[in-house]
Write a structure and sequence with these properties.
Blueprint: E1 4-6, H1 15-24, E2 29-33, H2 50-62, E3 66-71, H3 81-101, E4 105-108, H4 119-140, E5 143-146
Parallel strand pairs: 1-2, 2-3, 3-4, 4-5
Helix pairs in contact: 1-2, 3-4
Length: 159
């Protein structure tokens, strides 16, 4: 088993500093945050340039860390079809980033069901998004995982 650190825990530091600090603290792995939160910006996104991706991969290797995953957290069940399309493109971009940095897993979440949308409709949107993003992940040799979040459509073990 590996002890891993999620980069959002040091959200104010540049990712190369986070990698060094996580290794110095004795962690074995690091998960890269690609989620924009109300209180911070992501360390990586699909727009992360190739040279930065290479630097992240090299820094992790030099510091003895495995890059365990990329957290591609965007709502996949937005009421707007264009927003859902952009969410799928974001996750697919994070999958490509995962390949470049050597992360074997990208994980997603559903997001909360939009108000006024029938639950069955929200589940169909999420299922469609999972099919699309897992197909891309499979084609790139990356595992796609779904994180259950309280208050989101997908939030129970039975989901």
């Amino acid at each position: 088993m590996l002890a891993g650190f999620h980069s959002v825990g040091l959200s104010a530091d540049p990712i190369l500093t986070v990698i060094q600090r996580a290794a110095a603290a004795g962690y074995d792995a690091i998960e890269l945050n690609a989620e924009t939160l109300s209180w911070t910006v992501p360390h990586v996104t699909p727009a992360t340039p190739p040279e930065e991706r290479a630097a992240i991969r090299e820094a992790a290797a030099l510091n003895g860390l495995v890059i365990s995953a990329v957290g591609a957290h965007v709502a996949m069940v937005e009421d707007d079809a264009e927003a859902r399309r952009k969410a799928i493109a974001f996750v697919d971009g994070c999958t490509d980033l995962a390949v470049d940095v050597g992360a074997p897993v990208v994980h997603i979440l559903s997001g909360p069901a939009p108000a006024g949308v029938p639950e069955a409709t929200a589940w169909k949107w999420f299922a469609d998004a999972v099919v699309a993003t897992s197909s891309h992940a499979d084609s790139r040799g990356v595992s796609l995982a779904i994180e259950a979040i309280a208050g989101h459509l997908f939030h129970r073990i039975d989901d």
